[in-house]
Amino acid sequence: MKYAKQTGVESEFQFTVESSGERLDAFLSREAKESREFVQAQVRKGQVFLNGYPTLKNSHRLRSGDTLSGHFVSPPPLSVEARPGPLDILYEDDSLLVINKPQGIAVHPAPGLRADTLVNHLLFHLKGSTFSELSTVRPGIVHRLDIGTSGILLVAKNRHSQDRLAKQFAEREIKKQYEAIVWGQMGQLGRFESPIGRHVTDRKRMSSRTEQGREALTRWERIKLVGPCFTHVRLFPHTGRTHQIRVHLTEAGFPIVGDPLYVRRAAAGLINKLEPSARSEIQTLRFPFLHARRLEFTHPQSGEPMVFEQTVPQAFRSFLETFFSSGSFAE
Q1: Residues with active-site annotation
Q2: Which residues does 260 contact at the CB level (< 8 Å), separation at least 6?
Q3: What is the pTM of this model?
Q4: In this predicted model, what pLDDT tens digit does every residue of 261-290 receive, in sequence order?
Q5: Which of 141, 185, 137, 184 is nearest to 162 (CA)?
Q6: Are 295 and 154 in contact (CB under 8 A)?
Q7: Distance between CA 170 and CA 240 in Å, rounded?
Q8: What is the CB neighbour count within 10 angstroms for residue 189?
Q9: Around 192, how many Cα atoms within 13 Å sit in the side-chain half-sphere?
Q10: Could you tell me the domains of the chain?
């Protein structure tokens, strides 16, 4: 087996599997000494060949004698600075942190967004530790929340914790619960099962109408109806696809209030039922009312079950209080 690692260029690899049962992405991550997230992205890009044929399935269970080959393409590393900034830390020990992420802040740097993210603040908070060695761009990030989503975010502090927590996410052992305010009146409970992939024409959006959709499952239950226009809903994503909850709700006709990317024409008729002042408030919203309320996982070191819950932010509560009264709706 061989692997020639070269940052910023193509890196050729070839491995022979000695024992059966391991996931493809886990095997490659260990043997190539790359993060599991990096390996998964390379597989999705078609850079990996299984027994000479391209594969896009990270979860494929390998068999003894299988060969994996191809090229990894690494982008040039970003320079990520440690910068002081607010961190609402709900819990911290030697293995991990649990953070209450506010709306409007990105989790990690990206092109055009490099100076004021949670990763910048984490690097400052954990300076002097080995945290910065976990990744050049996303150290410790084992899952993510969109810039407009608030709520509970789990961060690993060392390689052991990162690998163990990433595996729990990949194996769908971590239980997640969200809350949202959506346009329209939803029923009592249900589930969405449409696959999700990159939109065929708009690369910023995800969609079930795509050429390479991956399975996605979201259960939901109604908390309460909010006047004739909105529903306060609780959501349980079983999988973790990009924009999963936002896409599933939008395509079912219930886009999240304040979502600048996915609110569709379905909301146009409902907004006419609001008083002028209420319409103005809706139109000034910059982020969707989507909140990561609860997270259940196993501690990567002790093996103990961990449960964290965070109530919705003030803006979320204020919206519900305002629009739950009939005075905000036109007759």
Answers
A1: 146
A2: 148, 286, 287, 288
A3: 0.76
A4: 887 665 667 777 787 877 788 888 889 999
A5: 141
A6: yes
A7: 9
A8: 11
A9: 27
A10: 2-73 (3.10.290.10), 89-171 (3.30.2350.10), 175-296+305-328 (3.30.2350.10)
